[in-house]
Amino acid sequence: MPIALRILLITDGLFLLASAMIGPIYAIFVEEIGGDILTAGTSFAVFSSVLGLLILIMGKVEDIFLKETELWVCAGYFVIALGFFGYLFIKTPLHLFFIQTILAIGIAIESPAFCAVYSRHLDKKRIAFQWGAWDAMHSLTAALGALSGSAIAAFLGFKILFLIMGCLALFSCFIILFLPRKVL
């Protein structure tokens, strides 16, 4: 597998690991800020709606305005990191909706760019395997994220969890940002 694909799998793996850390315990966090089941569902609807509206627009913008697509990936990871760190300041469901909007914006920036960069480096004879590698990484990091996130929250609390999530997303951003352009 080309080095660029390995690096992309690592950076996206770190981001996906961070994202999965909150997944299975999200409703517990929502209750801690005074929300309920309807708040959890509404926050996911806010996230999905904003993402659905923006992702096509961002894909078009990224195609037009920047040839170095990997910088869009970096920008997306950065915005996502801000969203993860933003969880530290949530006190009400309204704050949660705002942070979910930030996260959706970050993913709308990152996702089309990531797919473009990843696709650019695929070996035409191994496309299915190389996308399979991404899917495998996604599933395995989701499992690790769910387990580690719940353990971190249980033993160290949500604040530490959110700090770790933000740092993982920032680390992904910095890996992309400081790699020589010829690598990606």
In words, what does this structure look like?
- The chain has seven helices and no strands.
- 36% of the residues are buried.
- The two termini are 14 Å apart.
- By secondary structure, the chain is mainly alpha-helical.
- The mean pLDDT is 94.
Write a concise keyword list for the protein shown above.
single chain, 184 residues, mainly alpha, Growth Hormone, Chain: A, 7 helices, 83% helix, globular
Helix run count: 7
| Domain unit count | 1
CATH class: Mainly Alpha
Portion of residues in beta strands equals under 5%
Radius of gyration (Å): 17 Å
Query: Which fold does the CATH topology refer to?
Result: Growth Hormone, Chain: A
Largest sheet: none
Q: Give the overall silhouette.
A: globular
Helical content class: over 70%
CATH superfamily: MFS general substrate transporter like domains
Can you count the beta strands?
0
What CATH architecture would you give? Up-down Bundle
User: What class would the helix/strand composition place it in?
Assistant: mainly alpha
Cα separation of the termini: 14 Å
